[in-house]
Amino acid sequence: MNPIDMVVTDLNCENLGxxxxxxxxxxxxxxxxxxxxxxxxxxxxxxxxxIFTGSGGNGGDGLVAxxxxxxxxxxxxxxxxxxxxxxxxxxxxxxxxxNLKPMLSRLKINSIxxxxxxFKDYIIIDAILGTGIKGKLKNKVKNIIELINNSAGFTIxxxxxxxxxxxxxxxxDIAIIPxxxxxxxxxxTGVKIAGEEKVGGIVISDIGIPIEAEYFTGSGxxxxxxxxxESSHKGNNGKVLIIGGSLDYHGAPAIAGMSALKSGADxxxxxxxxxxxxNIKSFSPNFIVNELEGDYLNLKNLDDILKDxxxxxxxxxxxxAGLNEExxxxxxILVSKIKKPLVLDADALKxxxxxxxxxxxxxxxxxxxxxxxxxxxKLINDDDLNLNFKEDDYEYNKEKILKFQSITRNIKGTxxxxxxxxxxxxxxxxxxxKTGNPGMTVGGTGDALAGLSVSLLxxxxxxxxxxxxxxxxxGRAGDLAESKLGDGFLATDILExxxxxxxxxxx
Length: 507
Hints:
By secondary structure, the protein is of the alpha/beta class. It has 19 helices and 16 strands. Helix 2 (about 20-40) packs across helix 3 (about 55-70) and helix 16 (about 445-460) crosses helix 17 (about 465-485). The two termini are about 20 Å apart.
């Protein structure tokens, strides 16, 4: 499992009512159970336990394990690299350890600075870094890793051996070489790649995370957002182009443009026919509007639009474009020529040929069910294909999801399928979004979603992650608008909540 996805899953447990403190308690208890099994299997006489902890969540897991191992009758020694715990739940467990004084159990808290122990007849628990490795290791950490590797102790790493990259399995400096690695919930990607010589035997320990925490969107997904570089300047955080509008529709590209700006894009270009351009300009002075010849998008506009494509990081095609035959010809040519991250929405889903987008990985399409059936019509054999899930019928819901996955696997991009429960589909990957409310049937909320999607793509976020973020944020913003304004809120009201929500990343 990708370490980012694991952290996201942990955080999304909060949305299900399972606190991170409860998960840490479960992880520590599970770790102590696995240590006891390993000790019984590998040692014929009693052993002591030496637990080395870092300042993050991995260290907190070690502190919880210490309590449970003491209750099992083990003699436990703690070696904390720091008592300044950065993880709030680890800090709470350190407070518990301090509250155990005067000691009535066999626990020793030893200094890390004057270690004089070869750890013979010890099990050493590596709870130093886990998935929290960032950049080069500090000398203090390197020295401890070296000491553990050179000791006579039997080493068990928690989640990921300290010093091993949890994503790639590479060791850039030095890493613990354990006899076993105990991974919580699922094996991390880097541990799987690294192989036994780097991670020892792998033990997977269940800590009570429901499978739904992996598949439901939640506030933890905000970790997928990119941080702005402090030295960045205008345009570094996303430039988008919106191609749409027509004689009949000018609000859609304007709402999409404001959505892109409100969700962090630096610059928004809008290429629109002259029949819609003045109204789009009047919507906001923040837009850079390219006024194109004609009442509808047409083949004469091709060269002008391609010049705009060269200026931006991502492109949205479709809002308010209409269904003019020549507009369709233009959009199909544009889709075949544009190599940049792309979003197709609204009328583009009725005009663009499926065959043109099959191999585009940096692609998001945003259909509701009717548009989905139309776009994928050649691949759909089920006349009763619908989005009606049953709250308590696992087999029915599984079959429903597999049907949609079998269709969307025919393209490499990401599909945001809008419904009561929204689906984000990309090959075998799936997310289910439960944010949003009936008030979002008001016109323009789909345009807001499309603008949010293209903005996130412009910020160097993958199509799948951008799809997850877009549908979650749009729905959450709609829920906030509904709670404040009732059912009479507008699509433009939703946009005001994007910024505050994107600042809600759980630390």
